[in-house]
Records
---
Amino acid sequence: MFAVLSHTSRGTGRGRLLQGAAAVVVLLGLLVWWLLPIGASAPSGSVTFSTGVTSGVYQRYGSLLKEDLGRDLPDVSIRLTTSEGSQQNLARVASGEADFTVATADAVAKYQEDGKPGADRLRGCARLYDDYVQLVVAKDSRIRSVAGLRGKKVGVGQEGSGVRLIADRVMTAAGLDPKHGITPVPAGIDTMPGLLERGDLDAFFWSGGLPTGAVTLLWQRYDIRLVPLDANLVARLHASGEAASRYYRSAVIPADAYGSAQEGTPVSTVAVANLLVTTDRMDAGLTEGFTRTVINSRDRIGKEVHPAQLVDLRTAIYTAPLRLHEGAKRYYRSVKP
């Protein structure tokens, strides 16, 4: 009897050990399945990135970013398309004509405030760098303030650009009618420097990262000067009551931004943030990867496009007036310390 009981006990013990081992294997398998997205595929497909005018910062930044996206997202085809600027960029993304773009925060707020088609579907991925308003004149020009533009031929940016928005607001804040107080010339940064050089413009507005290549090339061959925008203009912009105007801040263009053009003197101006924009239609995995590349490519792109050096993980999450896209949220959670 004892021998039989002993044999049964040994058999029961081995059975329990096997059952326990099997349970551990199952638990490990479930843990691996939970930790690793088995069966999940890498982002693939094609996306269109709407940039800006040919010689502007948006376009140059987009071209360099495309190279890094090609490395990080090898199964995604990236197509770049030039544009007139922020306003056109937002309309393209909202309508589905483009998938990602860069636009200024004031242009986004204006698009929302006007209730434009698809405004409620726009989402932010990252706050990038600031644009600085640059009012450029010939060095020997008598124009010393925005009010001094009265009656002059002024480049104000293309109709669909963020430059046009901010130029009109700045002139209005200075007490100047942007339609009748000047002769507005709707040109972009690709043509305004040449027009100023030939005397076909008395001044032009540009809003972009520092330094902007087209303005740098202009001062290298032609004597120019930047007209200061005093701090009172920002206060007047904020007092206008427009939702978009709250995104403007006082800023200073460094003395060496354009070499000798400023004769060693910093210039007061107005700045506004740029945002990486998409819509809620965009795949979360692809958006997460796109956002990751934007942040990680800062140093490499910044060597050639200086404003990219200012992209900062600590502030990138602040994309007001846009809500963060779910894919961008995933990225920021993944790198949160």
---
Amino acid sequence: MRISDLFIYPLKSARGIAIPSASVDAFGLVGDRRAMLVEPSGQFITQRELQDLARIDIQPGPSYLRLKMEGKADIIVPPPHPDNRMDVVVWKSDVSASVADEETNKALSAWLCRDVKMVFFDRLAKRVANPEWAGGDAPVTFVDGYQILITTTGSLKALNADLATHGEGSVGMERFRPNIVIDCDEEWPEDRWAAIEIGGIRLDLVKPCARCIMTTQDQKTGSRDVPNPMPAMGRVRMSADRRVPGPLFGWNASPRGEGTVKIGDTVTVIEGRPEGWSFKRR
């Protein structure tokens, strides 16, 4: 098995960036989910409630970010001042984040027709994954819960086969917003992996990923008038374990080392999970 694709999402819930290689540190892939939009109150915003986030392209520069949106003038975002901070909320986590300059926030608010602020996970920000799953001190940025999301091509093929059987179209891997995509022929092998190694880095698969309405949205337009993978996931991937309810696709992973991963790297299973995961029968 090998890595077929790598993605980072510098601005949470905006478009992803396909990359040939990535540095990995304790937080996951470097550059992933280091920025986020929030309400003036500090509550985080995603495509779940603001579909237009899918229309925003982000291009990291050496000392700035460039935001692009069709029909809008580009926004150049300078580095935030570390003393300009606010408390923000990501699910159940409270995080002290640095805030973008006023001009950036005004421009983004005009783009999205609502008041928003752009915030950054900088060196002063602190947040950790749920220790019940990730164990010990597992630092995270603005991700939903864990450092790295892993999916496999074999599992997407199996999901699309079920969609096709029911005349429901097909979906691409971008719907699931993974970081690391592993090319394999087998369907759902990741359920039986406890740990894998890539480029000398151990990745513990700590928790399956429960999926939400974002998988039903086109990741370029935000439209929900597209093939919907949720019915198929409900048929073949509905969790029977109350700890992680709902339809599952992909696994959250925590890195246990640092280094570099790249497309084409060999993926080795170094620890199994023979019992797999419990799913409801159709």
